[in-house]
Structures are given as structure tokens and as C-alpha cells.
Design a protein that fits this description.
By secondary structure, this protein is α/β, with parallel strands linked by helices. The chain is about 40% helix and about 15% strand. The chain folds into three domains: about 200 residues, NAD(P)-binding Rossmann-like Domain (Rossmann fold, 3-Layer(aba) Sandwich), CATH 3.40.50; about 90 residues, N-(1-d-carboxylethyl)-l-norvaline Dehydrogenase, domain 2 (Orthogonal Bundle), CATH 1.10.1040; about 130 residues, 3-Layer(aba) Sandwich (Rossmann fold), CATH 3.40.50.720. The strands form three sheets. A six-stranded parallel sheet has the order 3-2-1-4-5-6, with helices on both faces. Helix 5 packs parallel to helix 6 and helix 9 crosses helix 11. About 45% of the residues are buried.
Length: about 450
């Protein structure tokens, strides 16, 4: 099938490359000329394992191409996906739909005859209705069916998620559009993912509701971790004990510094705003957002406690800057709250991240960025593990103890065992475990 993908951000580029790998003819469109030029040269603007090879192969085999020209890309397309950004709007937290509506107008004006217009971007309930109104206004003569098809990709595992989805949600009441969407995803049928036809509004809400629920699980286990520290229990044992209940599940029950990233923060805020406007407030999600923000704000105090009450004049090594491993995404990362707080309290911060340092540099002025975790740890009064990169799971502890000023480690991801750290002579602080040093 002929597919146009509008937007070459995280969702658009991954989806476009995967659709091309299915055998479809895909044109990815973006107004950023530098980004398109880089993609044509097989230079990927984001870090996602396997994406560079996937893009290069399908571009080489002429199933995937890139352009800044929207009109020719969509003119004869059978399916047009909108995968532009919907960031949280400054001031009120609403999803900013400016790019979505601009794309809808341009697409409607350029389509030749009929097509299925699919919203892949995460958008509030009712956005599809407004897109449909815009399309009818611009092209009353064309047969354009507006469909919602939310994405559920995890950064760092996006290609696997696309190829092996838990479900494919298709929001439409139009049978022809549903058949077209089934054909788009037909190569996945061998994997037997459930196709879930819904109304368009239900599909829009499913994405927000799913992210809000997962954010709630993270915040719940973080509060349980605080309780564990207070009563002398181990949050990892508690998480496993409740996670083995099939009604709960083990995923997203890992205590840590709080959620961040491109989805959970903005999607929970957008859902709250939608619910408030519908006069059906979601108090649980409002509390989740508040508690998560407070947790990130308290991280610097946790580090200060490990350093004897203050970080003033001390060297703090921060390992991991991105919001999660296997990505270079810095959006709403806990490090963006922790590091400035440490600097404000007078600390000297040395930082390392396997992929995120170039993205972090303009966001974290005053930080000394280091080429390796060991360079960051040299002369440090404490080392803080913020992101659980594999590279940090097997650090040479003997070497660390030799090069650090003080053998203090604050492990915000619980990737080491307290007994192991004690045996190596470290003062070790973790999250939700009873043997934090005092």
C-alpha cells in the first residue's frame, strides 16, 4: 500500500520504517530540512536500537523515502498517518494540537480523491471530530475517513513493540476504513495480535488511560518504597509478592526516582485537563502527578543525607541522564530536577550517560560531562545512579573505591545488592530497602 507518514519524530520514524519493512511504500514527511537531509544520508536523529539499520535497509530497497514536500507525498496515498508532536501547552497542561490541525488542513487540500487519514499522535478525546470538521471544510468533495490508531511504543524497545504488539487499536465506525487498516497491519497477523475496533473517541482515550494507569503503578510502588524504608521492609520483595498476582502483574513495579519521558508526564496532564473540562475530574491521576513531582524534587535531599546532610563543596558523580536506558531522550528526565538542585546546593557535578550527553549539555549548564563512568567518579564524594543502563550494572567496584574520595553510592534504581556493596566497603543507599546507611 502507498502510505504517507507526516512527522519524522520518534513515533513517525519508527512507524514509517516498520511499515516499509512490511513491504508497504512509505514516504515520511517533515518540514525540518536538516532532519530530512540527514535521514536521506542514513543519519538517524534519535537513538533507538536497530532503527538505523532498519531505515537504511528499507531506503536502499526503495520502500522508504523522505521529503519536505507534503503535497506530492499525500496526493495518491491510500493511507496518511499524522505523527506530529503534541507537547504539553505551556501554562495549562493541555496538549498543543497546533501541528495536528495544520497537518490536517494541508493533507485535506492535497489528497487526490479518497484516503484514510489516521491520527497516530497522542491526542485528547474529540480531536478526531475536529480533524474531520477541518477536512470537510477544506475538501467537501473528497472522501476522507478520519481514524484514530494510537501507538504503544516503548522507547528502547520500539521496533520489537511494533512487530509484536499487545493490541492494535483502530478507532472508526467506517467499515471500509477498518478494512484498509487491517490491510496495513496484515503482515502482523502471523503474530496474532488482537485487532481491537473501537469508536474513534474510545481509541483516543485508550492511549491516555493506559499511560495514566502505568504512571499510577510506578507512583504506587514508589510510595510503598518510602513505607518500606520507614518500617524496615524490602520493596523488591513486596513488589514481587504483589506482582505475581495475575491481576496486578510484575511490570512497572520497580521503585525509583519517579517517571519521566515523552509520554507519561504530558499524557497524565492532558487527561486531567480533559476530565476537568468534562466535569468528571480524575482525582487519582491528579494525585499521581503531584506525588511524582514531589518525589523528583526530593531526590537531592536523599543524596545530601548520604553525604552527611549537605552536598556543598562536594563532588557528586551522576551516572545516567536520560529518563530511561536505551534512548537519548531527556524529556522530563529525573536528572533534570536532581542535577540543578545539587548545583544549587553548592555541589560540583560530574555526569556520564552512554547516549544522552549531547542532548543533556544545553539542558544542564554547569555540569562537567565525562567520557566514562570512571572519569565521572574520580575524586567524587558520592556516586548517584539515576538511569539503569546496562553499562552501570557491572561496574568495577574495586576501581571505583580506589578513585572516589569517599565510598558512597546512592543507587536510585536498586541495581546492586546491599550485601555486595557492604562487602566491598561502600556506604550504600538504595530505594525502599531497609539497610540504607544512617
Amino acid at each position: 500500500m502507498r502510505i504517507a507518514m507526516i512527522g519524522t519524530g520518534y513515533v513517525g520514524l519508527v512507524s514509517g520504517a516498520c511499515f516499509a519493512d512490511f513491504g508497504h511504500e512509505v514516504v515520511c514527511v517533515d518540514k525540518n530540512e536538516e532532519k530530512i537531509a540527514a535521514l536521506r544520508a542514513d543519519k538517524i536523529p534519535i537513538f533507538e536500537p536497530g532503527l538505523d539499520e532498519l531505515v537504511a535497509r528499507n531506503a536502499r530497497e526503495r520502500r522508504l523515502s523522505f521529503t519536505t514536500e507534503l503535497a506530492p507525498a499525500v496526493r495518491d496515498a491510500e493511507v496518511v498517518f499524522v505523527a506530529v508532536g503534541t507537547p504539553a501547552r505551556r501554562g495549562d497542561g493541555h496538549a498543543d494540537l497546533t501541528y495536528v490541525f495544520e497537518a490536517a488542513r494541508e493533507i485535506a487540500a492535497s489528497i487526490n480523491g479518497q484516503a484514510v487519514l489516521v491520527t497516530k499522535s497522542t491526542v485528547p478525546v474529540g480531536t478526531g471530530d475536529e480533524i474531520e470538521r477541518i477536512v470537510r471544510e477544506v475538501r467537501p468533495d473528497a472522501r476522507i475517513v478520519v481514524v484514530s490508531n494510537p501507538e504503544f511504543l516503548r522507547e528502547g524497545a520500539a521496533i520489537t513493540d511494533f512487530r509484536h504488539p499487545d493490541r492494535i487499536v483502530i478507532g472508526t465506525d467506517d467499515e471500509r476504513a477498518l478494512d484498509v487498516m487491517r490491510e496495513v497491519y496484515r503482515p502482523l497477523f502471523l503474530n496474532q495480535p488482537p485487532i481491537l475496533p473501537t469508536s474513534r473517541r474510545a481509541a483516543e482515550l485508550i492511549k491516555y488511560a493506559a499511560n495514566a494507569f502505568l504512571a499510577t503503578k510506578i507512583t504506587f510502588i514508589n510510595e510503598i518504597a518510602d513505607l518500606c524504608e520507614a518500617i524496615g521492609a524490602d520493596v523488591q520483595q513486596v513488589a514481587r509478592g504483589i506482582g505475581l498476582d495475575n491481576r496486578i502483574g510484575l511490570k512497572f513495579l520497580h521503585a525509583g526516582p519517579g517517571f519521566g519521558g515523552s509520554c507519561f508526564p504530558k499524557d497524565t496532564l492532558a487527561l486531567i485537563k480533559t476530565a476537568q473540562e468534562a466535569d468528571a475530574p480524575i482525582n487519582i491521576v491528579e494525585t499521581v502527578v503531584s506525588v511524582n513531582e514531589a518525589r523528583k524534587q526530593a531526590l537531592a535531599r536523599r543524596v545530601a543525607d548520604a553525604c552527611g546532610g549537605s552536598v556543598a563543596g562536594k563532588v557528586i558523580a551522576v551516572l545516567g541522564l536520560t529518563f530511561k536506558p536505551n534512548t537519548d531522550d531527556m524529556r522530563d528526565a529525573p536528572s533534570l530536577v536532581l542535577v540543578p538542585a545539587l548545583l544549587k546546593e553548592g555541589a560540583v557535578v560530574h555526569a556520564h550517560d552512554p547516549q544522552g550527553m549531547e542532548q543533556a549539555k544545553p539542558l544542564l549548564p554547569g555540569v562537567n560531562f565525562c567520557a566514562s563512568p570512571y572519569r565521572a567518579a574520580e575524586g567524587a564524594d558520592a556516586l548517584v545512579i539515576v538511569t539503569e543502563w546496562d553499562a552501570y550494572r557491572a561496574l568495577d567496584l574495586g576501581r571505583l573505591k580506589t578513585i572516589m574520595q569517599s565510598p558512597v553510592i546512592v543507587d536510585l534504581r536498586n541495581i546492586y545488592r546491599p550485601d555486595e556493596m557492604a562487602a566491598k566497603g561502600f556506604r550504600y543507599w538504595s530505594v525502599g530497602r531497609p539497610n540504607n546507611m544512617n
